Amino acid sequence: MTDLVNVSASAAPPSSESPWWADAVVYQVYPRSFADADGDGMGDLRGVTSRIPYLAELGVNALWLSPFYVSPQHDGGYDVADFRDVDPMFGTLADFDELLAAAKAAGMKTIVDLVPNHTSNEHVWFQEALASPEGSAARARYIFRDGKGDDGELPPNNWNSVFGGAAWTRVQREDGTPGQWYLHLFDTTQPDLDWTNPEVRAEFRDVLRFWLDRGVDGFRVDVAHGMIKAEGLPDWNFQAHMLEGGTVDPNHEDSPFFDQDGVHEIYRDWNAVLSEYDGDRMMVAEAWVPDVERLFRYIRPDEMQQAFNFGFLLSGWSAERMSANIEETERNARRLGRPATWVLSNHDTVRHSSRYGLSDPTTYPRGISAEDEQPNEALGLARGRAAALIELALPGSAYIYEGDELGLPEHTTLPAEVRQDPSFFRTKGAERGRDGCRVPMPWDASRPGYGFSDAESPADPWLPQPESFARYAASEQVGVHGSTFELYRQALSLRKSESLGQADFAFSSLHDPAAGILSFVVGSVTVVANMGETDFALPEGEILVASHECPAGILAPNSAVWLK
Ligand code: NOJ
Question: What residue segments make up the domains of the chain, in order of their start?
Answer without folding.
Answer: 21-117+199-484, 124-183
